[in-house]
Design a protein that fits this description.
- The complex is a heterodimer of chains A (379) and B (511).
- Chain A is mainly alpha-helical.
- Chain A has helices at 14-37, 42-54, 57-81, 90-107, 114-143, 147-169, 199-216, 218-228, 230-235, 240-267, 278-288, 293-317, 323-343, 352-362, 364-378; strands spanning 2-7, 192-193, 196-197, 344-349.
- A two-stranded antiparallel sheet of chain A has the order 1-4.
- The longest helix of chain A is centred in the middle third of the chain and has 30 residues, at 114-143.
- The radius of gyration of chain A is 27 Å and the shape is globular.
- By secondary structure, chain B is of the alpha/beta class.
- In chain B, 31% of the residues lie in helices and 25% in strands.
- In chain B, a hairpin with a 2-residue loop joins strand 14 (314-319) and strand 15.
- The relative contact order of chain B is 0.10.
- Classes of the chains: A mainly alpha (379), B alpha/beta (511).
- The A-B interface holds A 2, 4, 9-10, 216-219, 221, 224-225, 228-229, 231-232, 234-239, 349, 352, 355-356, 359, 362-363, 366, 374, 377-378 and B 1-2, 4-5, 13-14, 19-20, 60, 63-65, 72, 74, 76, 307, 309, 328-333, 339, 348-355, 359, 362-364, 366-367, 369, 372-374, 376.
């Protein structure tokens, strides 16, 4: 018996869904084994995670709150990714969005109506994120710079800018020497609906926008053609540079919006940690969802639940929070592996002797004929 | 026991192979002698590739047996097949571009830790000499022409001691001269006792080169015939299943006047070398102007300059009297100029491989839809029309283009371009690698366009086709026009000479 890998004739459909779901289960089993090896009870741990994330109204609210910026960033990045522009600068674009939004909130007079605050800050955040993504976008379009390194490095620049603002330029004198930026005014806070700040509505609107944009608009179509082959795009009369630069800017603008949602909805104070790692987690979310916007809602919720639930787990069972990172990592690994099983399958073959017997049986007649002929020759 | 019968090099009996519901091979029998060049003929999808993939160990047959030099074998992987001395030369070369020929040839052959380059070089030199290949083992692959790369592929297989060679459409990418050279190599291999399986669509090549032909149709063996006892007509009938008229129409069309006028057109490549120099010609409506030339003589640059994809260094291109040099590709598409260039890999330009047929049909006209959204309804209707009109073999219009076979991919491109109702249709290598049936469908489509008063610039490889289909033929050599001749008044040999650089400007065939 031997194993052989063969390409599947038909891939996709609901079987692909089954394979993907199975891969998540496999990851959970492996994480469980790791926890067991560390001396923890995995079942209790999973129950604690489930309870912490979805088990109570409080937990559910927290989970959704964590999922909001994650989802928005993933949606923004997916526009870049569909052009094969490997934007891993989500963290920086989100921080830059929050910086711009903070600036606007500080400039507007105290009496400004809430709606003006929200709209002004949201637009500023999009401008900030978009501008920040535009830099590597322009370099890539006009001089072919590698965007992966470029966007990655810009993350650290944005974070250091935020640090500089906090320590020097925007240091709040009212904070009694404590290096902190002035909080945004109360009026600029996002109101709550069903106990969650209305960032969730923003996230849903962006989901619909991204899904429609990529699938049904001319620009979205061009985006996908450019991602596939710049030569083909050029041939079809598409202005490749304009699509690339525009797409990257839009991508950054959406990511910047996540910075506003986090700032106005949760933190209320700008700090360098406002990105909270969303820029990186979102890369995984976008890929696991195969750049499919509605699916990203589910994945973002799952990731948020893991993070939220892990805190409950630590409180209840003293299992370190970082176990949730292990689980996330394993899910990513098995999701990548599942792509292999969607296009290929493993065939268990009979051994060579068994095969030979089978062929002999099938070709017995010609075998006999050949033997007969040999006999005649001998005669 | 005395061996009175000659043992065939390859003997495949009762081979069957099914993919899901498709029976790709049914009870196929195929036998090749040592020292024989044996052609395998069949339309696209007749089961040739499946049969050869079975022989080279890529697929396991569902049933049937294979004897190699009289020994029963079961190939479970390409390695098993190679071990029995079977080598396949694929259409797409599998060479590492920035390594030398020597390194490519010896890659994967050594067993020890070190490589004895001197011995390998000597062996390669001997082989190259024996088969008159003229390959320098120390040249990088990236500096070689398509024909030389192919020769390296053949050397690679011979180096491993193959006694059986399978060549999959080896002439599709070669010029007439290069084909002659390849045939010389193959003749020497035949004399040397090697068995050669030659897969091709070009019947005259098959008849002139091969000893016997096996024809497949719809996964079955139709028969094996000796080439000296058959004719093209008979072979076509075996392939298609009915008699086919092989002559190509050349309808007489009274065109409505001048369409394209090119004067002194020159195109430089990135390193400043002239790819086209001082090309001038005129093309009228209702006319097919053929372009002949060795591959890389400037055909691509000509197409791309007209389509606005390359900026000429000098000269003018006037369409209906308007200068189009400097206009964007989209403006040129909008004016009614449609260009399709089928590259060697077929997918390189013109199609988005991961999108479905309907979305690929959109590529050229989505920009002219009103508003910010794409009108997919119209595209779907168009896609359905093109699929049925060109008999594209696909499960549906939502099938990913990458999963179509080469011929069908080409039909999608050409169908889309014709569907745009262009005034000027430029088509390069439209029938590259297509079987007879599909090729003739495409010739009649092009003639249909001509009768609709469209001006057609037809860049082709097959001189016989150019001579029959086109009204006039422009011959390019090293980016220069060596003549524009009337197709009905010129011979294949004359065109061949012009392709090699001899100018026929002064002779009477010139218009």
């Amino acid at each position: 018996m031997r194993l052989r890998i063969a390409k599947k004739e038909t891939a996709g459909g609901w079987r692909a869904v089954v394979i993907r779901v199975t891969s998540v289960l496999v990851a959970l089993i492996f994480s469980g084994l790791i926890m067991a090896a560390m001396g923890f009870d995995p079942i209790a741990a999973y129950l604690a995670i489930a309870k912490g994330s979805f088990g109570s109204a409080r937990g559910l609210i927290n989970t959704v709150t964590v999922a909001i910026p994650l989802l928005i960033v993933a949606l923004g990045l997916s526009i870049s990714f569909s052009m094969r522009f490997w934007n891993i600068g989500g963290e920086g674009q989100m921080v830059m969005g929050a910086i711009f939004a903070t600036y606007v909130s500080h400039q507007l007079p105290e009496s400004t109506p809430a709606v003006v605050y929200w709209v002004g800050m949201a637009l500023a955040a999009m401008l900030g994120g978009g501008f920040y993504a535009l830099i590597p976008g322009l370099f890539r379009a006009y001089s072919g710079t590698n965007e992966t390194l470029f966007t990655l490095m810009l993350n650290y620049v944005a974070i250091k800018v935020a640090v500089f603002l906090r320590l020097v330029l925007w240091k709040n004198p009212a904070a009694k020497g404590f290096p902190q930026i002035k909080a945004i005014p109360e009026a600029a806070h996002l109101p709550k609906l069903f106990g969650i700040h209305i960032g969730w509505i923003i996230a849903l609107v962006v989901t619909v926008f991204v899904a429609v944009y990529l699938k049904y608009t001319k620009r979205g179509y061009e985006t996908r053609v450019v991602g596939e082959s710049e030569r083909t795009a050029h041939y079809a009369g598409i202005n490749v540079r304009r699509v690339l630069v525009g797409g990257v800017a839009l991508s950054g603008a959406i990511v910047g919006l996540a910075g506003f949602a986090k700032l106005s909805g949760v933190s209320h104070v700008l700090s360098e940690s406002i990105g909270g790692g969303n820029g990186f987690s979102a890369v995984i979310v976008a890929w696991l969802a195969q750049l499919n916007a509605p699916v990203m809602i589910l994945i973002a919720l799952l990731f948020a639940a893991m993070e939220q639930g892990a805190m409950g787990m630590e409180l209840a069972l003293k299992i370190p929070v970082s176990v949730s990172d292990v689980i996330k990592g394993l899910i990513l690994f098995s999701a990548l592996a599942s792509e292999f099983f969607i296009s290929y399958h493993v065939v268990i073959e009979k051994g060579p002797r068994a095969l030979l017997r089978q062929y002999r049986r099938l070709g017995q007649k010609s075998q006999q004929a050949a033997e007969a002929a040999e006999g005649e020759d001998q005669a | 026991m005395t061996d009175t019968k000659k043992v065939p090099a390859i003997e495949m009996r009762g081979i069957s192979k099914a993919f899901a519901s498709v029976k790709a091979n049914q009870d196929i029998c195929f036998s090749v002698e040592a020292g024989e060049i044996h052609a395998l003929l069949g339309e696209n999808g007749s089961g040739k590739s499946t049969l050869m993939n079975i022989l080279s160990g890529i697929y396991l047959p569902d049933s049937g047996e294979i004897d190699i030099h009289g020994e029963r074998v079961i190939f479970r992987s390409p390695r098993d097949s190679m071990a029995k001395g079977i080598g396949m030369i694929h259409q797409h070369f599998k060479l590492v571009e920035n390594l030398t020929a020597l390194d490519n040839i010896i890659a994967g052959t050594g067993h020890g830790l070190f490589i004895d380059r001197a011995a390998a070089r000597a062996k390669i030199a001997a082989l190259s000499e024996q088969f008159a290949m003229g390959i320098d083992p120390d040249r990088r692959i990236s500096t070689m022409s398509v024909s030389e790369k192919q020769t390296v592929e053949i050397l690679k297989v011979l180096y491993r001691g193959s006694q059986i060679l399978i060549l999959d459409e080896p002439t599709a990418v070669l010029t007439p001269q290069e084909i002659t050279h390849l045939f010389q190599i193959l003749h020497r291999m035949r004399e040397n006792g090697q068995a050669i399986v030659f897969i091709s669509h070009k019947l005259n090549e098959v008849l002139s080169l091969c000893d016997r032909v096996t024809v497949l149709r719809q996964g079955r063996t139709i028969g094996t015939v000796r080439t000296d006892l058959t004719t093209t007509t008979e072979l076509v009938e075996m392939m298609v299943g009915r008699a086919v008229d092989l002559s190509i129409d050349r309808p007489v069309v009274q065109g409505s006047g001048l369409c394209l006028e090119i004067e002194g057109l020159s195109v430089l490549d990135t390193s400043g070398v002239h790819r086209l120099s001082k090309v001038s010609f005129q093309l009228g409506h209702g006319e097919i102007l053929g372009v002949a030339g060795l591959s890389g003589s400037g055909q691509k640059e000509l197409c791309e300059a007209i389509a606005g994809l390359q900026i000429p260094s000098e000269g003018s291109i006037r369409f209906h009297g308007n200068e189009i040099v400097g206009k964007s590709p989209r403006e040129i598409i909008k004016m009614g100029i449609s260009m399709s260039f089928i590259p060697e890999d077929r997918l390189g330009m013109g199609l988005v491989a991961s999108m479905d047929i309907a979305d690929n049909i959109l590529l050229k006209d989505y920009a002219f839809h009103k508003g910010p959204f794409i009108d997919r309804k119209a595209a779907r209707a168009k896609a359905r029309q093109i699929v049925s009109q060109l008999a594209i073999n696909t499960p549906g219009i939502f099938h990913t283009v990458r999963k179509l076979s080469g011929g069908n991919i080409q039909k999608v491109i050409l169908g889309r371009e014709i569907n745009l109702n262009p005034r000027l249709l430029i088509t390069a290598y439209a029938v590259r690698g297509l079987d007879i049936h599909s090729s003739y469908t495409i010739y009649s489509l092009i003639n249909e366009q001509k009768q609709k008063d469209v001006a057609v610039l037809f860049i082709g490889e097959d001189l016989d086709v150019l001579l029959e289909l086109c009204d006039r033929i422009l011959v390019l050599c090293n980016g220069e026009v060596t003549g524009i001749v009337k197709a009905s008044a010129v011979t294949k040999e004359q065109i061949g000479l012009m392709m090699a650089g001899e100018s026929l400007q002064e002779k009477e065939v010139v218009l």
